[in-house]
Amino acid sequence: MALTVVGSIAFDSVRTPFGERERMLGGSAVHFALAASFFTDVRVVGPVGDDFGDEHLALLSERGIATDDIEHIAGGKTFFWRGHYDHDMNVAHTDDTQLNVFADFQPKLSPESCGSQMLFLGNIQPELQRDVRRQSAASFAALDSMNLWIDTARDSLVAAIGEVECLLLNDAELRMLTEQPNLVHAARATMELGPEVIVAKRGEYGAALFTGEGMFAIPGLLIEDVRDPTGAGDSFAGGFLGYLDAVRIAGEHGERALRQAMAYGSVMASFNVEDFGTERVASLTEGEIAERLSEFKRLTHFEEAPIVR
Ligand code: AMP
Question: Cα dist. 127→44, 104, 130, 162, 199 in Å?
Answer without folding.
Answer: 18, 11, 5, 13, 22
